[in-house]
């Protein structure tokens, strides 16, 4: 505690310095002697002595300070202060110890956290290594499996090639055998024919005189017969002419008979023409009409069942089986209702023009409109008028005359009407076609209660202006949209696939699958296709399944179970 008494320590040092000169000198001399003695020792001995050497200078200063403190009047306060400082130092030491312990604990926790983190990283790394190892093993197994498949495919191809070579060799041997047989048969036939000809030639040479005698006798008999016939005919004709010329009554009777015969021939010819034209107008059908719902007399005799069904048929919906845009369907339904009411009230029919891309349902709607209205329909093509030449005018008049004979009213549908109803001012058309156009305009100049005119065209801008004046309604048929294509696909799938599959013959069976989802996907792929093209697509499905059925039957299986090849069609699209 000498540091607490610094002042007294300084005084003591001063006193010591003043009166202690001898002591210091003694100590210095003693130290010098010791150094002189130490210099004579070895280095190891000096190290041993330094280890056991004790410096008592500090103890002497402490004793002096204690004595000074005891003589001071503030000794007790200094002691208390020293105790308090000592206790404070102890507390500080304890707090430092606790902080050190806390630091140690924190270091342990941090070490545990670091160990845990290292362990977690180790586990992650091990998991990653295991995944990579599993992936590598999977790749190896997949590659091994692919190699096996490739090897199997090579083996199969090799076997197939060997089989094909074997079949080719067998086919070559069979062909050679057949050719050899044919060659041998031909040689035998030639040899046989050669023997027959030689035998016949030998017989002819032996009987040559007899054959010549037969030919000579036969020619003489034929000449005699011809001469006798000529003599007999000449004598009969001469006797008849002589008798008629000598008797004038017979001459007059012959002239009158010939005149009456000529009159009968010409009268029968005229009557036959009149009757044929009447029969053609009432019973038959004109040349330009390709298809009609009117039954001719001969058709009724050929197909009596269809004729009676036609009589018993009831009017159907005009849009039944026709899939169109909803707005277009609404407009066409209004036209169908108006046409039916016109027929019931015996009013004047309105002429309609239907234009748009091919295959969008124009002809189908025209037929449905006629059936819905209870009318007969007739279909003619504009391209049939031009090849008829001068007869085109007569044929058009026959069509309209025939239309006026319908008791139920006739819907005349002219398909590809722009083929002969072109503009007369700007289009270069022949005189015959111009005359046919004029005849058509003449017969359609006024609306008629007997027939309704429906024109169809892909290019309506080519019509003559007079044709546009005779039209009351213009309807545009567009390509089907997404919803309409899906409805068409479902319709034709039911018509060409489901109904034949459910028929009594059971030509094939369908596998269980969501055909609605496939039809939806196909509707997206069929963008830009018309209704006719989608219908042909349905027919191709049926043909594909029929072909698969035949292939299965060839393998001696009674019932075929196939799946609709929509995906193949989609890939083609």
TrEMBL record:
Gene Ontology BP annotations = mitochondrion organization
* Region annotated Disordered, chain positions: 1-48, 153-172
The entry's localization annotation reads: Mitochondrion inner membrane; Mitochondrion matrix, Mitochondrion nucleoid
A cellular-component GO term for this protein: mitochondrial inner membrane
Q: Coiled-coil annotation: which residues? A: 90-126
Residues in domain AAA+ ATPase? Answer: 348-482
Note the superkingdom of the native organism: Eukaryota
Compositional bias, Basic and acidic residues, is annotated for 27-48, 155-172
Q: Enumerate the SUPFAM superfamilies for this protein.
A: P-loop containing nucleoside triphosphate hydrolases
Molecular function GO labels? ATP binding; ATP hydrolysis activity; zinc ion binding
Keyword annotations for this protein? ATP-binding, Coiled coil, Membrane, Mitochondrion, Mitochondrion inner membrane, Mitochondrion nucleoid, Nucleotide-binding
Name recorded for this polypeptide: Bor
Lineage, opening ranks = Eukaryota, Metazoa, Ecdysozoa, Arthropoda, Hexapoda
């Amino acid at each position: 505690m000498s540091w607490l008494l610094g002042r007294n320590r300084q005084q003591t040092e001063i006193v010591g310095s003043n009166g202690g000169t001898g002591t210091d000198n003694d100590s210095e001399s003693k130290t010098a002697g010791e150094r002189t003695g130490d210099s004579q020792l070895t280095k190891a001995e000096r190290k041993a002595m330094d280890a056991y050497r004790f410096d008592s200078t500090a103890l002497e200063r402490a004793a002096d300070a204690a004595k000074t403190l005891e003589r001071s009047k503030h000794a007790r306060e200094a002691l208390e202060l020293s105790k308090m400082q000592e206790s404070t130092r102890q507390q500080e030491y304890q707090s430092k110890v606790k902080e050190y312990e806390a630091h140690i604990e924190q270091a342990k926790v941090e070490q545990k956290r670091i160990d845990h983190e290292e362990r977690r990283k180790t586990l992650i790394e091990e998991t990653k290594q295991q995944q990579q190892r599993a992936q590598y093993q999977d790749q190896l197994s997949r590659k091994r499996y692919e190699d096996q498949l490739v090897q199997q495919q090579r083996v199969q191809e090799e076997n197939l090639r060997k089989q094909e070579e074997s079949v080719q060799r067998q086919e070559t041997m069979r062909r050679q055998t057949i050719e050899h047989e044919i060659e041998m048969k031909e040689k035998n036939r030639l040899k046989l024919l050669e023997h027959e000809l030689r035998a016949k030639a030998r017989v002819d040479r032996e009987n040559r005189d007899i054959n010549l005698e037969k030919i000579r006798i036969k020619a003489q008999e034929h000449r005699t017969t011809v001469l006798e016939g000529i003599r007999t005919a000449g004598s009969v004709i001469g006797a008849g002419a002589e008798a008629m010329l000598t008797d004038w009554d017979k001459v007059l009777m012959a002239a009158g008979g010939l005149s009456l015969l000529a009159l009968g021939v010409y009268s029968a010819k005229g009557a036959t023409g009149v009757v044929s034209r009447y029969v053609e107008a009432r019973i038959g059908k004109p040349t330009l009409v390709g298809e009609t719902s009117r039954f001719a007399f001969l058709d009724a005799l050929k197909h009596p069942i269809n004729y009676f069904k036609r009589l018993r048929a009831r009017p159907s919906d005009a849009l039944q089986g026709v899939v169109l845009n909803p707005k277009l369907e609404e407009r066409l339904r209004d036209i169908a209702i108006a046409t039916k009411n016109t027929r019931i009230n015996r009013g004047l029919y309105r002429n309609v023009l239907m234009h748009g891309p091919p295959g969008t349902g124009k002809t189908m709607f025209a037929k449905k409109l006629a059936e819905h209205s209870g009318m007969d329909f007739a279909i003619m093509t504009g391209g049939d008028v031009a090849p008829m030449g001068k007869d085109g005018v007569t044929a058009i008049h026959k069509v309209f005359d025939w239309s006026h004979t319908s008791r139920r009213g006739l819907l005349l549908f002219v398909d590809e009407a722009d083929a002969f109803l072109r503009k007369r001012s700007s289009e270069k058309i022949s005189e015959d076609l111009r005359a046919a156009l004029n005849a058509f305009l003449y017969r359609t100049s006024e609306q008629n209660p007997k027939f309704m005119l429906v024109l169809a065209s892909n290019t309506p801008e080519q019509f003559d202006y007079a044709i546009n004046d005779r039209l009351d309604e213009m309807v545009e048929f567009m390509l089907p949209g997404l919803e309409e294509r899906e409805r068409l696909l479902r319709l034709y799938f039911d018509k060409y696939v489901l109904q034949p599959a459910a028929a009594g013959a059971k030509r094939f069976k369908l596998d269980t699958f969501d055909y609605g989802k496939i039809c939806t996907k196909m509707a997206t792929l069929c963008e830009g296709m018309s209704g006719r093209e989608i219908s042909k697509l349905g027919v191709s499905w049926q043909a594909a399944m029929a072909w698969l059925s035949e292939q299965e039957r060839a393998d001696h299986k009674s019932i075929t179970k196939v799946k609709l090849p929509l995906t193949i069609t989609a890939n083609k699209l």
